[in-house]
Specification:
single chain, 585 residues, alpha/beta, ABC transporter transmembrane region fold, 2 domains, six-stranded mixed β-sheet, four-stranded mixed β-sheet, 12% strand, elongated
Length: 585
């Protein structure tokens, strides 16, 4: 995995790259059929957002009436105003609460669509090629799909609706500030200077100053947040990898190496964290300082007008409320800066992930090695050349065909590309050239040396890749018994980490049990019996011949005895000049 040092990446907060990436991420979901329902919910969320702004206008006026009644010592007007204030407050609370509920309803639908998009593209046949081609470019795709999509959607909605609210608030309360201070005069060098809407201009000037200073202080948070996501994910992935390979580490006495690796990865987290909290401290001091001073500004500006008898105490309260709303709207960027910086990192990570998957698809599609499903009964390999991802030729001149029902042993020394050839037939190794025709109507099953054990019950493990419930318990128990796993027959409903709970021998026997259950037309065994002793291996091939008499079997194995259970051979070896050779017989 490519190493990134803390603070190494410098992604601008805005720019054409940001616009391009944001546009793409938004269009992924909002062009789908499901988006119309979310669109209606979003329209309701916008209406409720505007309702809160309207409610704030009513609250400001109600508070003015309360304080004017207090100043006039009018008890009747006071209690009437208090009743109005309570009613407006209740309505405001209801609108504000449902605003959050509706927004979160949109959020989960959007997140579901975006997560499905990335999951469908990542968990597919191109994932292996992507890992080979772009392993150093995209770290922790699991985190990008789970965490970055969640945070991107939440911030996209939150920032958009809060910006809308800020704009409407500015228009509404800006007009109120203008009207409340339109007739004020400012004493200046012995003269009285009339400035229409003085408070509005004060709020605008103060907001511009705080925005410029905040951006200057907090701009490095973008790169720090990007690195934080990377380092946190690396640290977590290292711990998960240790958990998944705890037995191998323990047998190798590799705990000290794993601890040092974890400490090194966590050291990067800590170093990045110190950078983060230092940057956040500087930003917090800036924003809180501007915020505290800003609370006093409207009172200082309005005090001369109050002392001159131009306005009442209630108007002072209304001015302070309105000024706070306008100032909050104008300083939206300041208050949202940290979230924008984190959101920008989410956008970058998701966009790079999508671009890498796009590049993988283009590179695979452009590959001259074509694997096609053909309306033919046989497997045909014509003029195939296999290369590594850098373009170095590994195996060339492969020509072979396999008819239905034949048993072919693929033999050769270690490193002779036997497994690579099966990967090419499976369509997951696109590096090379030539043509591979695979029967389109045949059921094909590839069984690797270490079969994959999904999370779930033992029944689900045995049914994989078919859904749990595809096979009856009687069929499953019979397959277990035939492969010497009768002790597991009563554990079909148990959920374990089966890849750690069972031995390598049991893993391979479970993989072979899947063959008996699924009854494929074509079976590719990639060292799938390497953990079995020779008598058990022989019984497995006899069992396959008995239970799947019409199936085509292609096996990779290092033991010479395996070839005896097959009628044909593909032999791979090394020539005198070091190149690999292929011979079909």
């Amino acid at each position: 995995m490519q190493s990134i040092q803390p603070g190494q990446r410098r992604t601008p907060l805005f720019g054409w790259r940001f616009v391009r990436h944001l546009t793409r991420l938004i269009s992924i979901y909002w062009r789908t059929p499901d988006a119309k329902w979310s669109g209606m919910l979003l329209a309701l969320a916008v209406a409720l957002e505007l309702g809160t702004v309207y409610g704030n206008l009513w609250l400001a006026d109600a508070e003015r009436q309360v304080f004017d009644a207090l100043q006039d010592k009018d008890s009747h007007s006071f209690f009437t105003a208090v009743g109005l204030l309570l009613g407006v407050t209740l309505a405001f609370l209801l609108v504000s609460s449902y605003r959050i509920y509706v927004r979160e309803s949109v959020e989960i639908r959007w997140r579901r669509g975006l997560t499905t998009y990335f999951t469908d593209r990542w968990v597919g046949p191109r994932a292996y090629a992507q890992a080979e081609l772009h392993a150093g470019e995209v770290d922790n795709p699991d985190q990008r799909i789970q965490e970055d999509t969640r945070e991107f959607v939440a911030s996209a909605l939150g920032l958009t609706l809060s910006l809308l609210s800020a704009v409407v608030t500015l228009a509404s309360f800006g007009g109120l500030l203008w009207s409340l201070s339109r007739g004020w005069v400012v004493p200046l060098f012995g003269h009285e200077l009339g400035i229409p809407g003085l408070l509005l201009w004060v709020a605008v000037g103060y907001a511009l100053l705080s925005t410029v200073v905040t951006h200057f202080v907090g701009r490095r948070l973008v790169s720090i947040n990007f690195d934080r996501l990377h380092f946190e994910a690396d640290f977590r992935y290292g711990l998960v990898r240790f958990r998944d390979h705890v037995e191998a580490v323990a047998l190798s006495r590799g705990e000290a190496v794993e601890r040092r690796g974890s400490e090194r990865r966590f050291g990067a987290v800590v170093e990045n964290w110190w950078q983060l909290i230092q940057a956040q401290l500087e930003l917090a001091l800036t924003t809180m300082g501007f915020g505290q001073i800003n609370g006093v500004v409207p009172i200082l500006v309005a005090a001369p007008a109050f002392f001159a008898g131009l306005i009442t105490l209630g108007v002072i309260v209304q001015i302070r409320f309105a000024y706070g709303q306008v100032s909050g709207a104008l300083t939206w960027f300041v208050n949202a800066y940290q979230e924008i910086a984190h959101w920008r990192a989410n956008i970058e990570r998701l966009s790079v992930f999508a671009e890498v998957m796009d590049a993988t698809e283009r590179e695979v599609a452009a590959s001259p090695l074509h694997v096609v499903l053909a309306p033919v009964p046989s497997l045909r390999i014509a003029d195939v050349r296999l290369e590594d991802p850098e373009g170095h030729v590994l195996l060339d001149g492969v020509n072979a065909s396999v008819a239905p029902g034949e048993h072919v042993a693929v033999i050769g020394p270690a490193g002779s590309c036997k497994t690579l050839l099966l990967r090419a037939i499976a369509g997951i190794w696109p590096f090379g050239a030539g043509l591979i025709e695979v029967p389109e109507r045949a059921r094909i099953l590839f069984v690797p040396e270490e079969p994959y054990m999904p999370i779930g019950t033992l029944r689900a493990v045995l049914s994989y890749p078919d859904p749990e419930g595809t096979f009856s318990d009687e069929q499953i128990r019979e397959a277990l018994g035939l492969l010497g796993l009768g002790r597991l027959e009563q554990r079909l409903d148990d959920i374990e980490q089966w890849d750690q709970y069972l031995s390598t021998l049991d893993h391979q026997r479970l993989g072979l049990a899947r063959v008996l259950l699924q009854k494929p037309d074509w079976v590719f065994l990639d060292k799938a019996t390497s953990a079995l002793d020779e008598p058990l291996e022989k019984s497995v091939y006899e069992l396959l011949a008995q239970r799947l008499p019409a199936a085509t079997v292609i096996s990779i194995a290092h033991r010479p005895a395996v070839a005896e259970y097959h009628t044909r051979r593909w032999t791979l070896g090394r020539c005198d000049d070091g190149r690999l050779s292929f011979q079909a017989a």
